Amino acid sequence: MVVIEGYIRDSAGQPLARIPVEASQPGDLTLTAVPEITDNDGYFKIIPQRNVDEINSNVYIVITDDSKKFVSVRDRYSRYKRRDFFDSQGYK
């Protein structure tokens, strides 16, 4: 069983609480029935609704941060910065 978990923090390293986090795969295959909400430590844990191949699957994390405090996410391969995908207004 694959578990997708992590922490959402702001640029100062402070946890972001109550941030909705979802997971999906290419082709808009949603892995979450409803968004998981980060706790007071910024922690989230997603148990996918269906089987996910741990080795050969791409999984996208969708983070909804209306306050725009979220700045980046890191996985085992790299770090992805919000500014690489969106401009200061939230568009690209």
Which CATH first-tier class would you pick? Mainly Beta
Q: What's the Cα radius of gyration?
A: 13 Å
* General shape: globular
Order of helices and strands: EEEEEEEE
Protein described:
This protein has 92 residues and is mostly beta strands. It has a single domain, classed as Sandwich (Immunoglobulin-like), CATH 2.60.40. 0% of the residues lie in helices and 30% in strands. It contains no helices and 8 strands. It has strands spanning 4-7, 20-25, 29-30, 36-37, 43-46, 60-63, 72-74, 79-81. The strands form 3 sheets. Strands 2, 3, 4 and 6 form a 4-stranded antiparallel beta sheet that branches. The radius of gyration is 13 Å and the shape is globular. The mean pLDDT is 78.
Descriptors:
single chain; 92 residues; mainly beta; Immunoglobulin-like; 4-stranded antiparallel β-sheet; two-stranded antiparallel ribbon; 8 strands; 0% helix
Summarize the model shown.
The protein has a single domain, classed as Sandwich (Immunoglobulin-like), CATH 2.60.40.
SSE layout:
Layout: E1 4-7, E2 20-25, E3 29-30, E4 36-37, E5 43-46, E6 60-63, E7 72-74, E8 79-81
Antiparallel strand pairs: 1-5, 2-3, 2-4, 2-6, 7-8
